[in-house]
Write a structure and sequence with these properties.
Number of strands: 0
Low-confidence stretches: none
Strand content: under 5%
Distance between the termini: 65 Å
Largest sheet: none
Helix content: 40-55%
Shape: elongated
Order of helices and strands: HHH
Structural class: mainly alpha
Mean pLDDT: 80
Length: 79
Amino acid sequence: MIKTYIKNWSFLRLLRLGLGLLIVIQGVEAKEWFTLAMGALFVAMPLFNIGCCSTAGCSTLPAKNNSNNLEEISYEEVK
């Protein structure tokens, strides 16, 4: 099970996990709870593969093409 979970990891996902762990460690050492919470968020994102761009959360639907309203385009040759 772990092999299938780790199979889809990229370098950037590992980098985000490492940076999140560094933020968590810094928050614990400094006793800053807000920093700890933000670090936990940054650790959770690569662990669960969530985020705007990692799971295509930012994708938009393609525009619908209305074939009834097509206009003919004329081109002019430029010399």
